[in-house]
Structure formats: structure tokens, C-alpha cells
């Protein structure tokens, strides 16, 4: 594809197009990577960047996501970071027990010979250079057995745009961002061809979509939906009773039991519209979407597993739930129950103490905030505790090592982990896939952010699997737990337009 300076124009005007000098600099980066690939006789990652102005990054994702097999959207309230990634320069895979480590090792090897070019954008949230993005299923075997999303899939995107999340009302107004184009060069690659195809991709992502307005107007088509609960409501409540029996018998202390609602619609779901609704209705959550082949996994989660920036580590204990009240008085009563219930406190403390212990292996100055805070979401409220530490001077651990150490926490699996997971494997009867897994990104110096993928759904055209789970302890009540899962499912139902 021949390059012309006018061929890569974004809708946002100045600062948002690539020129011939950019093309020359990108080509130079690819040529240097080729030289290194020939010298070392191994694949070399080339990563070229430049500052750019973008309007709403979500609109870039919306128009470009289906042009390649993989895309990624990330909008986080933690540091206001936004990431849109299209295409894949290199997949990093892992299987089984050591899947996170396998991905980490693949990533480390790839960035060892990294060749960079262009200019990085200053002043963006944490994260630097090319990123590895993607996630891990709840349990290593799940996805492998059923062939939906892989156990572990991270990849280096061909195109990544990092910026900050637009403040409400400012969507579409140009703001500073970094465009980065990545490719892996082999000893026999043609650098000109590589550079041209990256420019072609950038054009695709940055060129305005004349249909964007029309698409917004098609927001809620007259779609009809058929839903099935897996398992059925009474069977699920029976499982709750079975779990609490085992807990009282001393087999384990806590288990997080989930259920699925499978929805078949008369027409495919409108995912850009769903993302818009999730963003609008769930402030304070991380909105993510992972496109992999025909599947899309998306969610708006209030929980993060771990964040590493500048050698500071943050983990979050989020466990213990009550509904939101219909009036301020009722809401306060629900909050009092959340804060005052010994059962909920216990459910929460199990998570926080595991996080504290796990961080202590690689961190100094590990602290957990006390007392736990109350996080209010659209229709539920949770107990929340931030746990923080500093990576020890002699620690080489990065964010992926912490993912391996922490996942799954007792907020998703249970405690003790092995016994709870074994009970779930024998009884839950669910393919959780990436629900209650982790989704996020890592940079080459071990910084990164991983969210816990709850309040999420896995979509395949007109079929959606929605998930929700509850932490069970000895005195959990099946009816109350069932109602809690209904409340947790509601935001995704509304986002997808399922009534
Ligand atoms: C497992 C889920 O939530 C977890 C996170 C917050 C509160 C939870 C609870 O109170 O049970 C769960 O541990 C879910 O939303 O599917």
C-alpha cells in the first residue's frame, strides 16, 4: 500500500495524522530491527511511536475492531488510563499450571532485543513502550476443555493508542495520546512491506467513519432474547446449601460459587453501543473488551487484582455485598448491614489477609487500609480494602509474577484455595472461561494493570454468556445469595439491552 501524507488522517484534525517523515522514521525502525534479526538469527520486535491527538478512543476501537482477529479496549478509573489496541504483532501463549509464567517468559525474551523508533508521548498514565495485552481464564483447564477463549492469551498489538479516559462530556474533543506501531521482523522480512502494512492499519484506525452517527441512532434494535439459567435457580440454591454444609463440616472456609445466564438473541449484540452504556452507567469501573476471533469478552469491573507502577504494588480486596437502597435511608441501612455484619466481615477479611501474605513475598512495607471502605456501584455496594507494598530492592518481580501469585484470590475462588477450587471443579458445573479470570496489560519493565474480570460476559454473535458469583461462608443464605447474583448480573443485562 503506497504511503501518502494525506492517507492517514484522523477525524480530530491537527496532530492526528502521519506524514512522510513519520513513514521514513517507521521504515528506519523496521530496517534496524531487520538488521538485528539477521545478526541474532531470531525474531526482533520493532516498536515505533509518536504523539497524536485523538478524540474518543472508543470510537477508534468501534470502527477498527472487526478489521483484525484481535482487538482490545481498556478504560480504567484507577489512573485514568485508556488503551485501544488493534491487530497482533506477536501472540504470547501459555497452558496449564504455569501459563502465566510461560507468557511472562515469552514477553521477556521478545523485549530483550527490542528496537524502538519515533517519539514517545510525554505525560501519559503509567506504562511505557510496546505493551503485552490480554488475559487469563479463571482456571487453566476451563477454556482448554471447551475451546472457547484460550487459558492464557496475551499479545503485542500491531497498533496501540494510549491516552487518558475522556472526562464525561468531553468525548470527541482532541486530547494527547501516543500512537505506537509494532511488528516482529524475521531474518527474511521485507521492512518496506512491514512499514506499509502498519501505515495501512493506522489509516484504517484513524480515518473518520462516515456511518458513526447512523450507528449511534441504531442503538436499540428490536431484538428479542431467550435466556437460560445454568444451572436453574433451585438447583443453584441447592449448590449453595451443599457448599455451606461442606464449610460447616470444616472442609474449607469460603467458596465463591458462580452461575451463568445464557442468552440467545434474534440478532447479534451491538457491542460499541454496549460499551457506551457500560461507560455511562458504571462510573468507577474498568471497562474492557477483548475481541479474539469470533468471541468478545467484555465487562465493567469494580475490582483490580494488581497494579504495578514505579515499583509500587497495589492490590484490592473486594468482597462482601449488599444491595443499594431505593431511598437514602434504605441505602444507609444496607451500608450499615455491610459494615456491621460479622459474616460479611469474615468473608472480606479472608481475602485481605491472603493479599497481604502474597504481597509480602516480593514487597516491603505491605499495608492494608483499615477499616475497609464501602464502594457504591449502580445497584450493589461492596466492602473494599486497598493493599499496598513496595517491590523489595532485590526483587525482580513484575506485574505478571504478581498475577501468578495472586490469582485467583479468595474473592473469586475461595479459601483455602486448593480445597475451594477442587469443590468448584466437582460441583459448580460451569465453564467460567475468562469470567473471574484477569484482563490487563504489562510493559517491558514489569509495570502493568490487571483487572478481575467480573461483571462480564462472553459473546459469540447473538449468544451471550453472563456470569455472576457470590462468596459463601458457613451461614450464607441461598435465597439472599441468589438475589445477589441477580443484582450483579443486571448492569451487563442493561448494557446488552436484555430486559
Ligand atoms: C464474584 C463476584 O464478585 C466478587 C467481588 C465482589 C464481591 C463479591 C461477594 O460479595 O461475593 C465477590 O467476591 C461477581 O461479581 O461475580
UniProtKB/TrEMBL annotation:
Catalytic reaction list: chorismate = isochorismate
Organism superkingdom: Bacteria
Region (Disordered): 1-24
All copies of domain Chorismate-utilising enzyme C-terminal, residue ranges: 234-488
InterPro entries: ADC_synthase (IPR005801), Chorismate_C (IPR015890), IsoChor_synthase (IPR004561)
SUPFAM superfamilies associated with the record: ADC synthase
Enzyme class per UniProt: isomerase
Polar residues: bias regions: 1-17
Keywords: Isomerase
EC number: 5.4.4.2
Family: Belongs to the isochorismate synthase family.
NCBIfam families: isochor_syn
Name under which the protein is recorded: isochorismate synthase
Native source organism of the sequence: Streptomyces pulveraceus
